[in-house]
Amino acid sequence: MKTTNEVPRPAGGSPDAATSPPGARWRALVAPLGQQLAPFTIVFVICVVLWILTPHFLTTSNILGNLVQMSSLAIIAVGATMVIVAAGIDLSVSTVVGLAGVVSTVAIVEYGVGVPLGMLAGVVAGGLVGLVNGLLVSKLGLPAFITTLGTLSVCGGAALLITDGKAVYGLPDGFKWLGNGTVFGIPVPIVVMLVVAFAGHFLLSRTTLGRAAYAIGGNPETARLSGINVAAILIALYVISGLLAGLAGILEASRVVSGQPTAGTNYNLNAIAAAVIGGASLFGGEGRIVGAVVGAMILQLIGNGSNLLNISTFWQSVIVGVVVILAVLYDQFRHRRARKAT
Q: Reduced to 3 states, what is the DSSP secondary structure of residue 295?
C-alpha cells in the first residue's frame, strides 16, 4: 500500500486554510463581516450622540424628514455604486438632476404633455446622458473621469440654455405628488428610495449583469477573456446611473414644484462619498447597494445633526470632507494589506 506524509485537509479547504494559524483564519472570517457592519455602526453611534445632545433628534417628524431629504442622494448613490463596482465613475449626475427636472417641467408647462409623460421625459433624458457616457468610455476608450466631467459641464449648460437660466413654474397640482405625497402614511420619496434600493440590490447581487460588473471591476481583461461583453455591461451601468439621476431630478423638482436648472449641486461628489463610505472600493470589484444607502444616511445625519446643534454650514463641509478622506484612506489600507497577504 502506498503511504503519504501529506497532512489531510478539510473537504473543500485550501492548503493555506488548513495550515494557517487559528488567529489568521479567525481574522479572515471576521474581517469581511466587520467591514459590512462598519457603516451601520457609524449610523448607530451618530444617532446615540445626537440623541444625547439634542431632544429634537428622535422625533417622528425629524426622522421622516431625514429619510425624505436623503432619498434623492440615496437613489443616485445606487447608480454610482454600480458604476464604481465596475471600476468606473460618473461625475455627471449632479447636473443630470437639474437637466432632468428642467426637461420634465418644460415639457409639462410649455408643451402640455401631461404629468406622467413629462416625468418620463426627464428620466429618459438622464438615461440618454448615461448612454453617451457609456459609449464614450467603452467604445472610444476615453477615461471615465474626464468623460463624465465633460458631460457634467454639457448638462449644466444645457439646463441653463433650455430655461434661459430661470426656474420653471406653473406646474399642475398632480406634479407635486411624487415629492410631497404619501402612500399609507409613508412619504412617496421614501417609498421610491426603498424600491430603487431593493431593485439595485437584486440587480447587482442576483443577476448576470451584476456578476459581470464585479468581474469587470476585479480585472476587465480577465472578464473579457471569460466571455463577458465588457462594453455592453459598461454601457448598461452608465445608462442605469443616468436613469436614476434623472429620477432623482424628477423627485427634486416635484418637492419644490418647479424646475430648477441648478438643482443637484454636489450630488456627484456626495453620491460617490456615500458609495465609498458604504464600502465600495474606488479600485473596483467591491460595493453593496445597502452600504451606499447607509452611506447616504450617514451624510444626511451629519448635516441634520449640524443643523440641530447650530454648527455652521462651513463646518459641515469640512466634516463631510474629512469623513470621505478617511473612507478612501481605509479603502487603500485594505488593498495594501490584501496585496501583502498574497
A: helix
Residue partners of 89: CB distance under 8 A and separation at least 6: 83, 144, 145, 148, 272, 282
The HSE-up count of residue 248 (CA atoms within 13 Å, CB side) is 34
Residues 6+ apart with CB under 8 A from 278: 39, 77, 81, 287, 288, 290, 291, 292, 293, 294, 295, 296
CA dist 254 and 252 (Å) reads 5
The 3-state DSSP composition of the chain as helix, strand, coil percent (nearest 5) reads 75, 0, 25
The rounded Cα 295 to chain-centroid distance in angstroms is 9
Please give the pLDDT value at position 14: 43
Report which of 55, 76, 87, 86 is spatially closest to residue 126, judged by C-alpha positions: 76
Residue 245 — left, alpha, or beta (φ > 0 → left; ψ -120 to 50 → alpha)? alpha
CB 188 within 8 A of CB 177: yes
Q: How far apart are the C-alpha atoms of 212 and 234, rounded to whole Å?
A: 9
Distance of alpha carbon 128 from alpha carbon 134, whole angstroms: 10
- The residue assigned the cell 488567529 is 23
pTM: 0.88
Q: Where residue 331 falls among pLDDT bands split at 50, 70, 90?
A: confident
Cβ burial of 283 (10 Å; 0-12, 13-18, 19+) is middle
Average pLDDT over residues 115-130: 97
Which residue do the cell numbers 449644466 mark?
156
How far from 188 is each of 39, 67, 178, CA to CA, in Å?
Answer: 25, 11, 6
- The continuous run of DSSP H or E covering 69 comes out as helix 60-85
Q: What are 183's strand-pairing partners? A: 186
> CB neighbours (10 Å) of residue 297?
25
Contact call for residues 147 and 136 (beta carbons, < 8 A) = yes
